[in-house]
Amino acid sequence: MSKQRIFSGIQPSGNLHIGNYLGAIKNWVALQDQYESIFCVVDMHAITVPQDPEILRKKTIEIARIYLAAGIDPAQSTIFIQSHVKAHAELCWILNSVTARMGDMEKMTQFKDKSQKEGTERATVGLFDYPVLMAGDILLYDTQTVPVGQDQVQHVELARTLARRFNKRFGETFVVPEYFVKEEGKMIMGLDNPEKKMSKSAASEYNYISLMDNADDVRKKIRKAVTDSGEEIVYRDDKPALKNLINIYALLANISTQDVEKKFVGKRYGDFKNDLAETVVAFLVPFQKRMSEISDEDVLTVLRSGAKRAGEIAEKKMQEVKEKVGFII
Ligand code: TRP
User: Model-level pTM?
Assistant: First the structure.
């Protein structure tokens, strides 16, 4: 039996942090043996909010370099840049026109959140259409499973709806994708606010530990991280800040959260935080070293061959789609 296919992506905007690594990339590395994996750098999604062109280019390479340094193996998995495969824009347009309805789109909560600051009037049409582009990403590759964060589930649901609707009208064309979400409670939260997900666009840099932070930054940020009242190092829902720090520790040390509790019985928050900071540093230093050893040219070589592979799959699917909607091939 051939392997199931997974597809996921990250936007090249903001600073990738340990939440992105522990919540997404680390899992992808573990999944790539079991699944035929496609990992995308979604630059077309990134431009739905203003980006500086030079920084966007830099970040695009940086995300791919992070994939590689984290252990995504380009011999095994496909890594590519979304804008290198034209089919993403083409399928987005076709889905926009023949399957996506205003009624579906008006329910999208991420658009509501993201457009709130400046008001819907000022939001771009691209930001509104973001979920359809994402549906296209997924459907182009007959993706069976999409590993995503909880905040993206609604978008994958939309992809399912659009696939079903298209199949119903034009005959079996798209695989209706499943998704899996990291268990609730394992999501990495902000260091300055454990009620909200760690965010690469957070206002304060004390919200996250960037994958680029140096050892001193890490120590400072962990020292400043909010903690709960009490003394003991316990993993409990009523201690969300501590729970988050224990999750980070457990994931980086590859031990269970119970083992973290055991390790710190009788110790104080300060001891735990010091040890956590050193655990983060012990991960980041070699990670950053691996990154520094991968040149831009190496990254681009991987991305170009990834685009070729992805492009072949996508092109085939587009032929079928175009034929079905009545375009001349
Ligand atoms: N919207 C996703 C996020 O912000 C990124 C993304 C774009 C994606 N296309 C995708 C994720 C396709 C999974 C599958 O996290």
Answer: 0.94
